[in-house]
Each structure stands twice: as C-alpha cells, then as structure tokens.
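hey can u check if this looks right to u? its 401 residues, i copy pasted from the old doc so theres a chance i mangled smth
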Amino acid sequence: MRLRFQLLIFMLLRTILNTMHRMVYPFLAVFARGLGVEITTLSFVVTARSFIGMFAPVLGSIADQRGRRFGMLLGIFLFIAGMSLVALFPSFVTFSIALFLAILSKYLFDPSMQAYFGDRIPYERRGTALAITEGSWSLAFVAGVPLMGWLIARFGWNAPFPLLAGFGLVMLVVVWRMIPRTDHASQKTTAASGKNVRAVLTHLPALAGISIAMWASASNELVNLIFGVWLEDSFGLKIAALAGASAVIGLSELSGEGLVALTTDRLGKPRALVLGLVGNILGALLLPIVGRTEIGALVGLFLFYITFEYVLVSHIPLMTEVMPNARATLLSFNVTGHSLGRMIGAIVATFIYQRFGFFPVALTAILFNVFALLALGELTQKIVILPRLLAWLGWTRGSEA
C-alpha cells in the first residue's frame, strides 16, 4: 500500500518537472517573441538542451553510488535554481540557463525514481507500476501546459516561473520526508561509476535498447517541435487554442499510459513495443493526410501521441531489467538515448519544415520509427545486424592485413 501511495505522489511531483520541459514546444513562438529572438534561435537552445543528455550517465551513476533519495533531491534543487533565476531576472540568457538546469534535474530525478521502484517492484508488475508514474508526462499537457498558457496570456511570457519555483520547493519537502534516508536497496548495486559505464557500453542488448529510445524520440521530436508552428501557420491558432491542442495531446498520452498499465505486462514488453512502433508509423502517415482541417489535425496528433506514449512507457520497464546491477546507470544511458533522439529531431525539424513543409517531416518520423523496430529486433535477437557487421568488419580487416 505504501508503494502504491508513493507511485501516485511521484506521478504528481513529476508533473511539475514535465510541465517545464513540455511547455516550451507549443509556446515556442510565444517565448521567442517575448524574448525578442527568432524561432530558429530558440530551437537551437532546445537542441543544446538535448545535447546535455550526453552527461546523463554521469548523473545517473550518482543514484547507484549515493542512493536514489540523494539523486532525486539533487535534481529538485537544480530545478528550483533554474526557475528562480528566470523569476528574478527574466531574459534570454536566464531562460536558456533555466532550460539547461531543468533538463539536468530531470536527468537526475527520473532515473533515480525509476531505479527506486525497480529495486522494489517485481519485473512482471513493473510495467503497470511505472505506467502510473509516467502519467505525469501526459498530465503536464492536460493540466500543466494549459495553466502555463493561461498565465502567459494574462501576465506575460515569464509568469509561469515563480509558480514553478514554488512547486519545486514543495517537491523538495515531500521527497525529503517520504523517501527513507537509508536506501538499502541501492546499496546492493553500488559500484564504481566508471565500471558501470563501461559495462553498459560493452553490453550489446543495452546498446540496442538505448538506440530504441534514440530513434523513437527522434521521430517524436520532429512532430513535437513543429506542431505548434504548423497549427499556427495552417489555422492561425493563438495561445489559448494552442494550450487546448496541448490538452488534446496530453489526453492522448494519458490514454497511452493507461493502455500500457492494462496490456504491457500481459502482452510482454517487446511485443507491446512492436505494436506501439507500428501504430506510431501509421499515426505519422495519417497526420498530414487528415491534418488538412483543424479537427483533423487534432485527431491526427491524438493518434500519433497515444502510440508514441505507448512505446515510451512500455520501453522503460523493459530497460529496468536489462542490467539490474547497474540499473540507474543504464536508465541514465536510456535518457541519453532519448536526448540524442530529441537532438537529432530538433536539428532537422525546422530545416525540413521551412524548406519542404510538414509532409516530409512526417515521412522522416516514419523512417526513424523503422530504425527503432530494427533496434528492438537486435535487442530481442530476432534480428542480428550489429554482430554480423562487426564480424564482417573484423574479417575484412583481417583479410586486408
């Protein structure tokens, strides 16, 4: 009962972190106008934010060494620092720093929390349990982003930051009181940071699992970064309507998380991932076709995001059991995979959209999902690509020698 209560509390707490992360996308043009910069300039900052994910394994190993509680508290502290900076000194520089600190806080908090529950919940029930905490991702769009949109429309672009800083303080107190000081479960897996990192980088199933995260997130980021601009360009949607569109996407993701809770443990994690990736390919294919009207665009976004969320949430419990002895470190590498994917998506999204339109964006998203399916085949050993490639390269070099 205590774990169930903690799952619900962490769902609410992570909603705060995810609101900051997600509100950038629908209000990208709004923030750019408020900061006095071009959309392209701000998209570069978003890309740089994703690049910080390269350091996630270093941060995640902290939770393997110092305990899950320490990792979560440090992450919350960074979040509070970033939000307070913009609240006190609003500018493009402080906004950029806040984005970086906020993503670092997620890279500390999320793997620490996932490892905490991974230590305590059996693998056969872990899909349902982690799906509950992942409800925070959709709640951020259902409730958090519309609230931030209301604040922005009423008080200006920087209005959300004092409120988010206050919420961060609440998070700090709750985690400090709720998580035990002595984290016995994490002590079982304590190891040198370098040893854990090397173990992940030399474990082929782990690398295949990380690449699933990378390609799926690259596909999602293409649409994520563009959909607000696309809706505004196509239908003239303004701040309130964009917040409403965010709520529709959030409801689709909440539905995806509910489907994971109901089906992933029963189907098996790999099979659920296949269904999700194929569904996301179909959603990306339909998006430019049905998106010729405002309602059609929202329906297409609903289908695209429900299937991506099903992939994302089904993938996490699978990764918690790939390397149990370096669980937090591997989950941090998984975050790195997502960050690499978002960086790839952010780099190409505005370039493709501004020069060729939305349809090529959707086609590129489909291609990335195909790569994710191939990586899943590698992880489950249904497809063997990388070992054969390495063997062929070894044989070629040997023959050349």
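The chain is about 85% helix and 0% strand.
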